[in-house]
Amino acid sequence: MTAENAIARFRRDITLGALLKGALAVGAVLVLLLHFLPLPAAINPSLLLMLLVVVWVVLWYGTMKSSRLAAESSTLIASGMLEQAETQIEQSLRAFSMSRSVKSLGLLNLALLRLAQKRWPDTALLCRELLASRGPMPEHVSKSGRLMLADSLLEMRDLRAAHDALTGLYRHRLSLSESLHLLRVQSDYLAAIGAWGELMRDVENKVSLAEIMPPQHGARLQAILALAAKQTGQAEWANWLRRRVELLVDVRELVAARPLLGQLWET
Prior knowledge:
Elements: H1 3-34, H2 45-78, H3 82-94, H4 100-116, H5 120-132, H6 139-155, H7 159-167, H8 176-192, H9 196-200, H10 203-210, H11 215-231, H12 235-248, H13 251-257
Helix pairs in contact: 1-2, 1-4, 1-5, 2-3, 2-4, 3-4, 4-5, 4-6, 5-6, 6-7, 6-8, 7-8, 8-11, 10-11, 11-12
């Protein structure tokens, strides 16, 4: 499913879901009013009300099914099972849901998948749609969307837009995993603009946080800090951090992903 198709389906389902909920609510009120009106014996308001309840239950069963698919998708992505996640996410997005939160989670998972696949423009497009969506949205969807938007924009070298996305996160309370993600993206941004002094601020705490990240992410953060130390004339920090990075990952792959870090192994 392309990002454009996913967005079109998301918008359609949100609109249709709102209309259906409104229609069911109006129908329930009208049926209740029928109890106070003289009606032919063939019209049973209680039976009509039961019919509305059945319709509501069927629709919410589909919503719960879509919610389960969306929840399982994030686990598959975290496990690296991207093809299975693609199938699951597409099923989740194609399934009708009455809940805006469930549809938002499905679109968020697709953005997460595209980020894992390094399809940066698709990730940015999906995240922007989530953040521009009107109506209530779970806070964790908004925060994750901003983090992934900033991440993808940095990969696309759109530094101004990445800065704007990061700025929107500072007014939120973040979980530990969200704080770690923000630290990674923020460090990438500071390295891209050459803010080496800012990177070295509170470096001990940043190194401690890097230790609880997945090895690839922790190594990249420590490599950025090593480069910041080198640029600010702190050779002891630079050498120590560089050796730690060499123990964690293949530095050739690291430099291929972030050519700027090649300065650490110039000799």
